Amino acid sequence: MGHPAHVLDQYYLAITILVTVACQALGFVIAWTFKFDKITDFTGGLNFFILALLTLLLGQEFSARNIIISVFTMIWAARLGGFLLFRVLKTGRDERFDQIRNHFLKFLGFWVGQIVWVWLVSIPITVLNSPAVTASGQPRFGTASDIIGIVLWAAGLAIEAVSDIQKYNWRNSGKPKDRHINVGLWGWSRHPPYFGEIVIHWGIWCLSIAPTVTGRTHGGTRSAQLAGLVAPLFTMVLLLFASGVPTAEVPVAQKFYKMSYPDDAQPGGHAGSAAWDNYRAYRAQTSVLFPLPPALYRALPRWVKRTVLLELPMYEWTPEKEAGRRV
């Protein structure tokens, strides 16, 4: 174990934001110049990988906790970035960018958002690997927070990876297009990859916090470690209220409705297919995020679904609501 490198500040926050800006700026220049959006998610995953490896090497703290949290982050980043790159290469384009690919400021806005996402979510690893925490000393690996963190990370990664594979296989298996995927984890949650990602980042935060919960850190170092809580919380806010569930729920509902009523006919008219009825039935029995057996979810009162299971009104699209907005 060597001496940690002191770069710009004792928490490595400055160097990691500079590296993140450089990485995402390069990705933006390539994507904008060549109208090539296949590298967007891969660039995000690569950025996470670089920050975890960089801070581990700069900090020179090769204890079990630092190695495990850094490797866990690199595994998650490599899997997610690699899978999303594979998927977009197979499909040919990323539909999220159809409306912004040729608008400079809108397209730039995505990359600025990715800078914020990568840097904030990396804070627990960045601070743990920093000289400030190393100087404070660490408890032996195996604390309660370590065990909880490993369990959460492993469970979250398994849920995210398995649900991604299940959806990919569903799309390539020739299943009826008028039915939403309802196999495996998708029969218990409408968005299992998002649930898995949230659990992963709670696990990473739990792994990072042992020096503080055991009383080894004080003052600014303690505050910096506690500030790492922003990572799982930001992930939840992002997926629940911004680029995750909201951007998936409404388009999916509209797609199945249009399959049944392609001419924008009223639901009382003749349906071209059973797609809309199938989707409403799936939605009524499937939790939006937390995996639950359909029979249990159906039996729960509405207020529990709204307040505890986060079945928020903003996720619901119906032709009646759409008509009301047009008036």
Radius of gyration, taken over Cα atoms and rounded to an integer in Å: 22 Å
**How can the largest sheet be summarized?**
none
pLDDT average, as an integer?
A: 88
In the predicted model, the low-confidence regions spanning at least 5 consecutive residues are: none
| Helicity, as a percent range | 55-70%
- Tally of individual helices: 16
Please report the distance between the alpha carbons of the first and last residues: 68 Å
What is the total tally of β strands?
Answer: 0
Shape: globular
Structural class: mainly alpha
Order of helices and strands: HHHHHHHHHHHHHHHH
Estimate what percentage of residues fall within beta strands.
under 5%
Briefly characterize the structure.
66% of the residues lie in helices and 0% in strands. The protein contains 16 helices and no strands.
Write up this protein.
The chain is built from 16 helices and no strands. It has helices at residues 13-34, 40-59, 64-91, 104-121, 123-128, 131-136, 144-171, 192-208, 210-213, 219-227, 230-241, 245-260, 275-285, 294-299, 302-307, 319-326. Helix 8 runs antiparallel to helix 11 (230-241) and helix 12 packs antiparallel against helix 13. The chain is globular, with a radius of gyration of 22 Å.
